[in-house]
Amino acid sequence: MKASLQLKMGQQLTMTPQLQQAIRLLQLSSLELQQEIQQALESNPLLELDEEQSDGDLEQSDDPSSNDINTNQDSASVETSDALTQDSMPDDLPMDTTWDEVYTVSSNSSSGVSREDDMPFQGETSEGLYEHLEWQKNLTPFSDNDLAIATAIIDAIDERGYLTQSCEDILEAMGDPDTELDEVEAVLKRIQHFDPIGVAARNLSECLLIQLAQYAADTPHIENAKLLIKDYLDLIAGRDFRQLMRKTKLKEDELREAISLIQTLNPRPGLAIARSKDEYVIPDVSVSKKKGRWVVELNPDYMPKINVNQHYASMARTTNQADGQFIRGHLQEAKWFIKSLESRNETLLKVANCIVKFQQGFFEYGEEAMKPMVLNDIAEAVEMHESTISRVTTQKYMHTPRGIFELKYFFSSHVGTDDGGECSSTAIRAFIKKLVAAENQKKPLSDSKMAQLLAEQGIKVARRTIAKYREAMLIPPSNQRKSL
């Protein structure tokens, strides 16, 4: 092939670094934005925190303490001439130190070791079920052989607290010919009484019976509860109360009390010790009603106010060329960063105001008044692209009188009504929750019945849609909600 030169014309969209930074800041959550601001403050010397308000608070807090110190010194001081002319010695003499100071110094320096070394750590722990059982095992006086068995048993316990291997498999895995099956079962009995009670059970019935054994022998209906757990656990799960009363010869009141006692037990004891990570949410905006109007405000606490260090900025003209270029480059970056933050706040406030305007019924009356709304509705109202609205509403939270919600929560699909209107899926979930809460527990509402009740209110919803929403809210079906 012969080499040649060709001239082409075309259009290409190029994102400037400033635009890329603005888009990246727009999709950050409040916690991530705080980290981004802190990183920018550390990397750019021309950015600084606006600490005028904090400095003023510190000065106000310093003044009263200094006045108190001067007052105490004046009251404790005694003139030398007055002291010499006194005939009697007072009971309380002035001291250079207080008892608190003497106690603090002596306790810290008596042994030459810091008290921090002796104090246990009281902060957050990330202990799981395995670590909790290992800690109890080490405190239990086991022999060397029993300790090895206990270790093997704890290794075979899942996160729910159940033993996943049989005693025969544990004995075979140990590979010790001197260990017998009776020893494994004896150690298992001891571990089953570790905290939480019922751990290391081989099935649900054994787990519940172990917990029930901790109750006093004279506990009302305890024998009936044991009978139900041993022989009729499947019927309890199926809520077949007529069959239970026929087979157990129990009256309705006796059966109800026995089942209530069983419901106080924990079928998954291991989850009570399971490691969980708390997630903290800082609302980006807050909504409150002032003078009859819903007002949206940015949360000033989640984002520190930053500005350009004017002292360093003025040095760009007086320093040499290399230093001046360095300062000018960081000055421009600082201005871009501050402008991107301001643009983020303006966009977030504009979108939040539009959401509140669309969903005023929710703020006034609750979930049942939620209107159907999609991203395109807000995008057209604020004259932005849907992708921008998606970035603004992701991981952004709104503090309202009804709680804290993610901005995505206010968007939902719609279902048609008889009068030609629309009803949001969030409102339908609220209706389902309300119907379940008010139903007769002896005859709970089926999905078809709830669809019929909604149709009477003009909302056309299929039975399978009711089932989908009910399962999403973790509401069991009607046969499992039935009770005596």
UniProtKB/TrEMBL annotation:
GO terms for cellular component: DNA-directed RNA polymerase complex; protein-DNA complex. GO terms for molecular function: DNA-binding transcription activator activity; nucleotidyltransferase activity; sigma factor activity; transcription cis-regulatory region binding. Residues 325-482 form the RNA polymerase sigma factor 54 DNA-binding domain. Keywords: DNA-binding, DNA-directed RNA polymerase, Nucleotidyltransferase, Sigma factor, Transcription, Transcription regulation, Transferase. Residues 63-88 have a biased composition (Polar residues). GO terms for biological process: DNA-templated transcription initiation. Residues 125-312 form the RNA polymerase sigma factor 54 core-binding domain. Residues 51-62 have a biased composition (Acidic residues). InterPro entries: RNA_pol_sigma_54, RNA_pol_sigma_54_core-bd, RNA_pol_sigma_54_DNA-bd, RpoN_core-bd_sf. NCBIfam families: PRK05932.1-2 (NF004595), PRK12469.1 (NF009118), rpoN_sigma (TIGR02395). This is RNA polymerase sigma-54 factor.
